[in-house]
Design a protein that fits this description.
α7 (about 150-155) links the parallel β4 and β5 (about 160). The chain has eight helices and eleven strands. The strands form three sheets. It has a seven-stranded antiparallel beta sheet with strand order 3-11-10-6-7-8-9, with helices on one face. Strands 1-2 form a two-stranded antiparallel sheet. α6 packs across α8 (about 160-175) and α7 crosses α8. It has a domain at about 80-240: C8orf32 fold (Roll), CATH 3.10.620.30. By secondary structure, the chain is an alpha+beta fold.
Length: about 240
């Protein structure tokens, strides 16, 4: 037969823990984060000075900073290697444009979001690509190169290639696609014309959403684009040597 506790032991285990007086609670809290040391006065000279805080006190005074964001995988594509880069000329435009969230606004895209949310990831990406291509008219910026947020482009119904890409990114964000899986890519085509597309990491494979076609193509199937810069979240990449 196994060991059995006595009735007295059972009662002791079941009894609630005694509550600490408020003075004891305050004392325990002060021991966890001790108060700042008082000035020490030399008995002979009367000079006063303060000793440096011990490591425990310094830890209480200065909370640990949040961990830095993790850089998404480098979007090497179109036979070029992506290389991390710091500040760039279009960085400010990117930071402002990416802040707009489609989910915070109502509009003609509500029906799209409702239908696309019931689809598989690949079909959802294709539906968003086609919907934006059909509902947004291409129009060059009238005064310089301006980047609009996704809600702004979708409300007004027109934009250039960056605006198309940002609109698709905003809709996919509203559908639950991770921002770390999407990249705005600035590039040049065979005619050396500047262009922009949205690239999505779908299960480790990069696919391209382009306002020039309703097809969602794998990046390795495209041979007439040369990437220049790409952005995802707080990070940016430039492009160096060719792959292979």
């Amino acid at each position: 037969m196994g060991w059995r506790p006595s009735l007295a032991a059972i009662a002791l285990l079941a009894a609630p823990a005694p509550l600490l007086p408020q003075d004891d609670v305050a004392r325990i809290g002060s021991e966890a984060c001790p108060a700042e040391p008082e000035a020490f006065v030399m008995p002979t000279t009367g000079a006063a000075f303060t000793l440096p805080p011990d490591p425990d006190q310094a830890a209480c005074a200065e909370p640990a900073p949040p961990p830095p964001p993790i850089r998404p995988p480098a979007p090497s594509l179109f036979r070029m290697v992506a290389l991390p880069v710091g500040d760039t000329a279009p960085r400010q435009k990117w930071e402002l444009a990416r802040l707009g969230e489609v989910a915070e606004h109502r509009g003609p895209w509500d029906e799209l979001l409702s239908e696309a949310s019931r689809l598989q990831s690949g079909d959802m990406i294709g539906m968003v690509n086609q919907w934006v291509n059909w509902h947004v008219r291409f129009r060059d910026d009238a005064a310089g190169d301006e980047w609009a947020s996704a809600p702004e482009t979708l409300r007004r119904g027109f934009g250039d290639c960056e605006d198309f890409a940002m609109a698709k990114m905003g809709l996919l964000l509203a559908l639950g696609v991770s921002p770390d899986d999407m990249y705005l890519v600035l590039l040049r085509d065979q005619r050396q014309a500047e262009h922009a597309v949205l690239v999505v990491n779908r299960g480790g494979r990069l696919v391209v959403l382009d306002n020039r076609t309703d097809k969602v193509l794998p990046a390795e199937a495209i041979s007439d684009y040369t990437p220049i810069l790409s952005f995802s979240g707080q990070f940016a990449w430039t492009y160096g040597r060719r792959l292979g």
